[in-house]
Amino acid sequence: MPMRSPTTAVNPVSWKGSTSWTPLPRRDSFTLVSRRGQHRHRPLPRLTEPLVRDHHGRLRPTSWEAALERAAEGFQQTLDAAGGAAIGLFSCSKSTNEMNFIAQKLARVALQTNNIDSCNRT
Hints:
Blueprint: E1 14-15, E2 18-19, E3 24-25, E4 31-33, E5 39-41, E6 51-53, E7 59-61, H1 64-82, E8 89-90, H2 97-110, E9 116-117
Parallel strand pairs: 8-9
Antiparallel strand pairs: 1-2, 3-4, 4-5, 6-7
């Protein structure tokens, strides 16, 4: 590649017939890197249906009822095996008081735990 003088203008769109942004896919499948090392982020498409893991560990689509039932079973198994001390809940300090109250009630009544934090220290 020939040396350029500092006064030589460079067209950012084209350099010897190639574009400056040729996407090179990376492992995470949503970050693209240009030839100059600039990262371009393309968001992944949003989920439109819940996913659960099958017995092989792969995610598969399912109905909302089945997904919520599976989550409830997981909470119940944890409660049965280790009690409420094994569960913790985080709430947001920027939520309304009513939302934090509901989260506290969920933790103390349904999940049988006092491990709830609303991150009000930050």
